[in-house]
């Protein structure tokens, strides 16, 4: 059964009526195709109106939707012959960060992503996409491996942030994130990062300091979650909608600010409604952005990447 967000209630009611009509009508009875078509058109119209006016807080809810494609879904759809790789060769394997080698539309690539999980069991397994130091060290190891084998790096980010537990701090969380960013900037191969859901804090940028940064239309990217910001500024997490508006966390705002390079369109109603369409659009965007980077030298790739991120501090707000 489809999960509806609070602001989707008008659509939920219409689609419930459509399903009820389909279940009530037995073969040979009155043909209700016309009525179903009218209700379907009305539902699509409602959906279009709602999604054309989403607030930043509503986009946050869409970005967090349980049925939205996660990193492993993206890898399954876009990467052929994927061979997962595990461990940071120092402490352990962190399931919040997934990665390995594969082929993307004829090109051998290294793929790294943050995986939230799709149900209770997998969410616990992947720690809700919140990586520990060993996760970022695994990502760093894979980036360095990609450099040695001249393989472009594709990253898919979906995390509320790095794991904030005591054990993570004890094992050097901040240093591991910093090393991840350093590895991104030092990679001698093309690096294309995509924010597919949430891009939270340093836990996101550790995998997202790329030559090109893509972002799904209804994804969010920020230094802190709206709830965290509201708790700090107003000591009230209920002010999250206000914080989301002020933080300019949407793909559209970030594109205007020059912090990302391309907004990848989602199907009407969000990527969770038509995952195959959303994933195909993402694949096309990655292929389009990767093509011009393949001909650049390692020095040029690193210089462009570094200049790109250094220039961000000069953008006036």
What report would you give on this structure?
With about 325 residues, the protein is an alpha/beta fold. The protein has two domains: about 5-55; about 60-315, 2-enoyl-CoA Hydratase, Chain A, domain 1 (Alpha-Beta Complex), CATH 3.90.226.10. The protein has 14 helices and eight strands. Strands 1, 2, 3, 4, 5, 6, 7 and 8 form an eight-stranded mixed sheet that branches. The protein is globular, with a radius of gyration of 21 Å. It starts with 8 loop residues before the first helix and ends in a 6-residue tail after the last helix. The mean pLDDT is about 95.
Structural class: alpha/beta
The major sheet is characterized as:
8 strands, mixed
**Proportion of residues in extended strands:** 15-25%
CATH topology of the largest domain: 2-enoyl-CoA Hydratase, Chain A, domain 1
Indicate the topology:
Elements: H1 9-24, H2 33-51, H3 56-63, H4 71-78, E1 80-84, E2 97-104, E3 107-114, H5 120-125, H6 133-148, E4 153-159, H7 166-170, H8 173-186, E5 191-200, H9 201-205, E6 212-216, E7 220-222, H10 226-233, H11 240-247, H12 251-257, E8 262-264, H13 275-290, H14 298-311
Helix pairs in contact: 1-2, 3-11, 6-8, 10-11
Question: What are the key terms here?
Answer:
eight-stranded mixed beta sheet; alpha/beta; 2 domains; globular; 317 residues; 14 helices; 2-enoyl-CoA Hydratase, Chain A, domain 1
Short description:
With 317 residues, this protein is an alpha/beta fold.
